[in-house]
Amino acid sequence: SGVALALEDLLRLLLKSQDTFFVFGSFCDGWGSCLSKIDGSIDSDSDIDITFVLKSNSVHIPADCSASETSNCLKGCKVADYEDGHVTIALPFFQRATFRLPEIEAISARHCCSYPRIELLSPGYRSHISTQTLEAIRTEVLQVPRCHAVSASPPGLEGSRMRVSTTLLERIVMHNLTTVQGQLFVLLKFFIKRHISSKVSGLKTYMAKNLLFYMLDETP
Questions:
Q1: How far apart are CA 159 and CA 96, in angstroms?
Q2: Does a structural domain hold residue 187?
Q3: What is the largest CA-CA distance in the chain?
Q4: Using one digit for the tens of pLDDT, what is the confidence trace for 152-198?
Q5: Owning domain of residue 15
Q6: Which residues pair with 51 in a beta bridge?
Q7: Closest residue by Cα to residue 148 from 57, 14, 76
Q8: For the segment 56-95, what is each residue's pLDDT rounded down to a tens digit?
Q9: Is 43 inside any structural domain?
Q10: Residue 105 phi/psi, 5° resolution?
Q11: How is 82-131 classified by DSSP, letter by letter?
């Protein structure tokens, strides 16, 4: 994960673009980028995702943007309808994958003025996730929001529908895992990717992360 963050900083420095390039995926999470070796290499079927966040035509989510939060809005923000993690908006079409090389996928994303409501941070919500992790998530969401949305449109409606990405919040959790929690994630991903998915269609490796987050939230 340290190498990935250094790569992220290097990209921003070389391209003179602060807070617009992000490196995501298991390579940056620090867990599960290689399920066959322990030498720090990356599996051939494990991607390094490089996301470029476009600041023009930022997405404004009015249902979750209070008066105090509108200071995060950039000039030219486009109001969008938000429902269940997705925004619907008419914006110029952009390809989700700008280019792809072995193990590297470049993705374009739209900047959002703020995060939508995060249930984990709701008053009265009880979670067993560590206080340190929750505070880091709270800081990202409320103080320095870097929310963005990626293309998730059905065929024929390109550019009209996007999914709000929570990857930065997920990365905070992954970077704060204990050794045992990280090993659990690797085991879950290994079983899903190498064994169960060959017998059951539709399973994706992100389900291992979803299951891990549920267990962190529910397990004392």
A1: 9
A2: no
A3: 51
A4: 876 666 667 889 999 999 999 999 999 999 999 999 999 999 999 88
A5: 2-176
A6: 22, 107
A7: 57
A8: 778 888 654 443 345 556 666 788 888 888 888 876 655 5
A9: yes
A10: -130, 125
A11: EETTEEE-------SEEEEETTEEEEEEEEESS----GGGSTT----S-H
